[in-house]
Amino acid sequence: MSTQILTVAPAGTWNLDPIHSRIDFEVRYLAGTFRGEFHEIGAAVTVDAERASLEGTAKVASVDVKDENLSAHLQSPDFFDAERHPELRFAAQNIRLDGDGKVSVDGDLMIKGVTKPVTVTGAVTAPIADPYGNDRIGLNLAAKIDRTDFGVDWNNPLPSGEPALANDVTILAELQFVKPAGDRI
Q1: E-assigned strand segments in the chain
Q2: Please, how many CA atoms are within 13 Å of residue 121, restricted to the half-sphere of its CB?
Q3: How confident is the model over 22-72, as pLDDT tens digits?
Q4: Which helix (H) or strand (E) holds 70?
């Protein structure tokens, strides 16, 4: 199926509604899946006549994994190194609509000062009017990355010699964007 410019969103700048959005990650750890969330996030989608672009950030200090000692470890140089690299960043210059609301996004992800190309896939909702006079769209996106590509190498070997923490991490973004009705380019 051929791709086309994202046309389900009218032209303009769509700003993230951080209250109704989240960015999570999950990684295999020991006998299950370990999950976390970044609470302080920001993003914008810009749609013009030729393309739709996406830029977003997550504050490393806002990582939440239900244990403050572990959250602190994730902020240390073993993982995200929040002091030297306080934000994760994603930027994409072209959101492609693949049909039936499915999207593909090729962008650059920066973690711990290392930037790598990443393909993100998911779905976009058609614009809706909210009760407050704004237009909204939703983007639900996922990407799988190898954390070691970004210098996030910490691990703890099990007695078997296998690593306790997998290298593959899934990033999940459930994002709502808002644009005041009538705000057109």
Answers
A1: 4-5, 12-16, 22-29, 32-38, 41-47, 52-59, 63-64, 87-99, 102-111, 114-124, 128-129, 134-146, 165-180
A2: 5
A3: 999 999 999 999 999 999 999 999 998 788 899 999 999 999 998 889 999
A4: helix 68-75
What beta strand segments (E) does 62-133 contain? 63-64, 87-99, 102-111, 114-124, 128-129
83 token code pair = 């002091």
3-state secondary structure (DSSP) of residue 74: helix
Query: What are the C-alpha distances in Å from 42 to residues 38, 68, 92, 146, 152?
Result: 10, 23, 14, 23, 23
**Measured distance CA(59)–CA(169) in Å, rounded:** 18
User: How far is Cα 59 from Cα 159, in angstroms, rounded to an integer?
Assistant: 35
Structure tokens that stand for 139 in this block = 């983007």
Residue type, 78: D
Per-residue model confidence as pLDDT tens digits over 160-171: 999 999 999 999
